[in-house]
Design brief:
globular
């Protein structure tokens, strides 16, 4: 049984580390977008919403992305698996980023509802316990080492300074092109 348990914990650990990184990275990306004037105005307006309106705002990512998920299913059903999977992955990434950003903005307002606050605290407590248990497992340490090794290997193959410089140049060029129009 222990032999079967180790790979499952290892996979859960990799998934947990990836999910935490993805959530933080996407939230940071949307925070950078929030530096623009239009997004600042939207952010301020969202923060002024009441508790029930705040909860409704959290439905936006699911409603907006539903047609894309249908398109992915259509592509899968019509023999285009790569297109379907690509659409699903993109929808998941965008949906997670938007949901992380929106939840970060409206969380305090939504927590004014006693039932939501209890639910939120319960879920956060359960997640913390589950993460503590998972981190105590030897398979988690092995997964964390493997991920650190992978990051080091990736960084040595593709230096961040070169990558960041190229992205920054492309962003500046696009910004200059938009300014000329």
């Amino acid at each position: 049984m222990k032999r079967l348990f180790h790979p499952v914990v290892f996979a859960l650990a990799v998934l947990l580390v990836f999910e935490e990184w993805l959530w933080d990275a996407l939230k940071a990306g949307f925070r950078r977008l929030a530096d623009h004037a239009l997004m600042r105005a939207l952010d301020a307006r969202l923060r002024r919403l009441g508790p029930w309106s705040s909860l409704l705002v959290l439905l936006i990512p699911a409603l907006v992305l539903f047609p894309f998920k249908l398109a992915a299913l259509w592509a899968l059903a019509h023999g285009e698996p790569m297109l379907g999977i690509a659409i699903l992955v993109c929808a998941k990434l965008v949906g997670t980023g938007v949901a992380a950003y929106l939840f970060d903005v409206v969380r305090d307002s939504a927590r004014q509802l006693a039932w939501f606050d209890r639910l939120y605290v319960t879920i956060i407590t359960l997640l913390a316990r589950a993460k503590a248990w998972l981190r105590a497992q030897p398979a988690y340490s092995a997964a964390a080492r493997a991920i650190r090794h992978g990051r080091t290997l990736l960084a040595s193959c593709w230096p961040a300074s070169r990558r960041a410089g190229r992205i920054r140049r492309k962003f500046r060029a696009a910004k200059a092109l938009l300014a000329r129009r």
